[in-house]
Every structure is written in structure tokens, then in C-alpha cells.
Write a structure and sequence with these properties.
This protein has 436 residues and is α/β, with parallel strands linked by helices. The protein contains 16 helices and 10 strands. It has one domain. 50% of the residues lie in helices and 11% in strands. Helix 4 crosses helix 5, helix 7 packs across helix 12 and helix 8 packs parallel to helix 10. It is globular, with a radius of gyration of 22 Å.
């Protein structure tokens, strides 16, 4: 009997703009540095994206490993599903953050990084707690695994929506009495505040260009997608490159690229090339799904929908509201940075931010992507949606996915909801035209 098999179809190549390719090269170099750290006698620190103190870690010559970023890379490479299930086999609940479970499963499978090489064990765990309780429990698990020095840099939650001098002084005291002495002890390097100031000057320079790029989405058509494309743009500055010449070069390069797209009247670059006509301008609240990232993005650009602003691209710093690292007040600046990140803002502050984006970026509506396993974002999202909708008079919608667990991505369901949402926007427009 002859068996006929369907010929395999080749997945189309993903089209990247030059800045995305440049960012990928930077990340590849970063993972090679991490893998080579033990051979070079270099110490490794593990920390998280929100409120990370990269400039301070560089003062002690640490290589910075970020477990969140490792989980994201695993999701994009379709590996996280297996890691999540491995963690669940060892007793971790289905409700636990899938970043955590991906990281735990990755460790159980040999802790192999995106470059195919083993990631080194950290010499120090540095947690700058910024509004996500899960980070604390995650670090407890890592401490049990690695049995290394652990530093807790506590950041007060802005429950009242205000940053006070007492909060800053409390954090500076921790830096002086606990964080810096422990980093000196582990690294064997004496703290040099002038070195920190120099890194902060570089941070502020890169932050200026990042803000310009994000705010370029106010242009019509928007030259960037501030959610899907924004994931690439924030990578260097939210992680191991802030405070470096590489970050300055990258954001200068990115800005020039975006300036050219504006001059040519082009929209964002998508995995399938330049996006067609811009039909819908959206503000998005919540993280994206990484296991089906390209498929998820395609549901938007196939409909001509571009995200002009997003809350997720502020988890590593709300620079577009004025914050810059200040070399004249370096320790105070570290404290302000941690206090300012999106996950440390209360719900009224988040509503104000999203309302501001809706107005300033002339968005057609708000879309919330609720992440099943992320309580830090998901708590209060329905309240946020209703309040923004009430204040702006523009339609809002709600979809559900997960960070890096492929079991909670239903492409057909999401596509149907998005199509219904775009119809809502069209109906709103028709009503406005009729009233006019």
C-alpha cells in the first residue's frame, strides 16, 4: 500500500527591521558572556526587570542574569511549555506564575540558556521588590536552589499614589547599610560612587532616545507598534544593558530608524513586512503572550490595528512621565527608579496613565490582555477597563492568555473577540459621524 504524506510547509521567514536584528545580536552576546563567566572568574547576579539596579551591579563587575528574560526567551523558542509541566510535576500549582514555573523547570532540565549553553549559578540574588509579591516567593525558591547570598531591597508600595521623602530616605538607608556592603563582600570590589554616576549619565542618555521612540507613536500613521514591537525596543534598557555604551548606540540607532520611517510615512515593521493601512489605534494593558507571539501579533496587523501605547513597556521604568537616572543624586535616583515602575503604582495611578495614553495618542480604544497566572497585572483589570471606558467614552475589550504557558492560548477565541472589538470601534465611529 502506498502512503501519501503531506509535504512539509516551510515557516515563512520572520522579517525584522535593522534595530530588531541589532537587539538580537546584543542579547546573543549577553548570553555568551553569562555562559563564559565562570571561566573568566566573573561573578554573576540574578535579579528581576522591574526596579533592577543594573548600574549598581556594574559597579561591582557582576554579569546580570534575569530569570524573567530567560522565561520569555524560552516562551519565544517554544520550550517553556515543557518547563512549566516539569515544575508542576514537582508540586507547583497551576495558578503559580508561569515565569516562575518556566524558570524552575529550566533549572531541572539543566538550566540551558537560549544559546544552548548552561547558565552559571548566581553568586548573589538581588531583589528590588516592586509591587509583585510573587517575586519574593520566587527568590525563596532560588535561594533554596543556589544557597548563595540573598539581598532584599524593599521598595514601599505607592498605595496612596505618592512618592515621599521618607520612602526615598528609607531606601537610601538600605542601600548604604545593607545592599552595597553585601555586594562589596560577594564581589570583592570596593564601591565607587563616581563609577555609579558615570553609568547613570549613560542611562539617562539612552532613556531620552527610548522616550522619543515610544512617543513617536503619536504620529499618524504610527511608525512603531508600542506593544509587540515595543518588546524588542525595551529589551536592552530594561535589563543588562542600561548604563552601557551599547545601550546608547542601540537607542541612537533605533531613533534614526524610526525618524526615517516617519519621513517616509510608513507604519510599523511586522514579521510579514511593513504593516498596511493603519485602521485602528489601540492602547493595551497587560503583558503579551510569548508562546504564540507571532500568531498573536498577526491578529492585529492583519486588521490594520497598531498599538500606540502600552502599560507593559513601563514595567522597567516610566520614563515617559519624566523620570531619568540622575548622576548628581545617584542613590536617591535608584530609589526613585524602583518606586516609579508600573507594577508599583496603585490602580488609580494606572487608570490615570491609561487615560492619558488614550488621549495623547488619539487611540480608538483600550484592550486588556489578562494573564491567567499574573496576579500583579490581572488584579483590578476589569475595574481599570470600566473606568477608562467611562472617562474617555471609547470602547474597551478584554481578552485572556498567559505569559509562557501554551495551554492557555486559544487562537480562535482570541481572534473572534478581537474581530468583535474592531466592529465595536467601527460602530462607535459610525455613531460619531451620524451625530456630526
Amino acid at each position: 500500500m502506498t502512503v501519501f504524506t503531506r509535504p512539509k510547509t516551510k515557516t515563512p521567514d520572520i522579517i525584522k527591521d535593522a534595530s530588531m536584528s541589532k537587539q538580537k545580536e546584543m542579547m546573543n552576546r549577553h548570553y555568551e558572556r553569562l555562559s563564559d563567566a565562570p571561566e573568566r572568574g566573573e561573578k554573576v547576579a540574578a535579579t528581576f526587570v522591574p526596579g533592577n539596579l543594573n548600574e549598581l551591579l556594574m559597579c561591582f563587575d557582576f554579569a546580570n542574569n534575569l530569570p524573567e528574560v530567560n522565561a520569555i526567551q524560552s516562551g519565544l523558542r517554544k520550550q517553556s511549555g515543557g518547563y512549566v509541566m516539569e515544575a508542576e510535576k514537582s508540586g507547583h500549582s497551576e495558578d503559580v506564575c508561569t515565569y516562575v514555573k518556566s524558570d524552575i523547570g529550566m533549572m531541572a532540565k539543566g538550566n540551558i540558556g537560549p544559546n544552548g549553553r548552561k547558565l552559571p549559578d548566581p553568586d548573589v540574588l538581588l531583589l528590588s521588590y516592586t509591587g509583585c509579591f510573587t517575586f519574593m516567593k520566587w527568590f525563596e525558591l532560588l535561594r533554596q536552589q543556589y544557597k548563595c547570598e540573598t539581598i532584599m531591597f524593599h521598595t514601599p508600595y505607592m498605595a496612596d499614589g505618592k512618592m515621599t521623602k521618607d520612602m526615598i530616605q528609607y531606601m537610601v538607608k538600605q542601600l548604604k547599610q545593607d545592599v552595597i556592603p553585601k555586594l562589596e563582600k560577594v564581589s570583592g570590589v570596593k564601591f565607587d560612587i563616581d563609577r555609579l554616576r558615570e553609568y547613570m549619565r549613560k542611562s539617562a542618555q539612552a532613556e531620552d532616545d527610548l522616550v522619543w521612540v515610544l512617543q513617536s507613536a503619536k504620529t499618524k500613521p504610527s511608525p512603531i507598534d508600542a506593544y509587540f514591537g515595543g518588546i524588542y525596543y525595551i529589551g536592552p534598557i530594561f535589563g543588562a544593558f542600561r548604563g552601557t555604551d551599547d545601550a546608547i548606540d542601540y537607542y541612537r540607532f533605533l531613533r534614526q530608524e524610526v525618524e526615517e520611517r516617519i519621513a517616509q510615512g510608513k507604519g510599523p515593521v511586522t514579521p510579514d513586512g511593513d504593516m498596511g493601512k493603519e485602521r485602528y489605534r489601540l492602547v493595551v494593558e497587560g503583558p503579551p503572550n510569548y508562546t504564540h507571539f507571532r500568531q498573536f501579533w498577526k491578529m492585529f496587523y492583519d486588521e490594520g490595528a497598531v498599538v500606540v501605547a502600552s502599560s507593559y513597556t513601563k514595567v522597567g521604568g516610566t520614563y515617559d512621565f519624566g523620570f531619568r537616572h540622575d548622576p548628581e543624586n545617584p542613590l536617591e535616583s535608584l530609589a526613585e527608579y524602583c518606586l516609579n515602575v508600573y507594577t508599583n503604582r496603585n490602580l488609580p495611578m494606572r487608570v490615570d496613565m491609561l487615560e492619558n495614553y488614550m488621549d495623547e495618542y488619539q487611540a480608538d480604544g483600550l484592550l486588556i490582555n489578562s494573564i491567567k497566572s499574573c496576579n500583579s497585572f490581572s488584579a483590578g483589570q476589569l475595574l481599570i477597563m470600566r473606568e477608562v471606558e467611562k472617562r474617555t467614552g471609547k470602547p474597551a475589550a478584554f481578552i485572556e492568555t498567559d505569559l509562557v504557558d501554551p495551554r492557555y492560548f486559544s487562537g480562535a477565541n482570541i481572534k473572534n473577540r478581537l474581530e468583535s472589538y474592531f466592529q465595536m470601534i467601527e460602530q462607535k465611529r459610525a455613531g460619531v459621524r451620524s451625530a456630526a
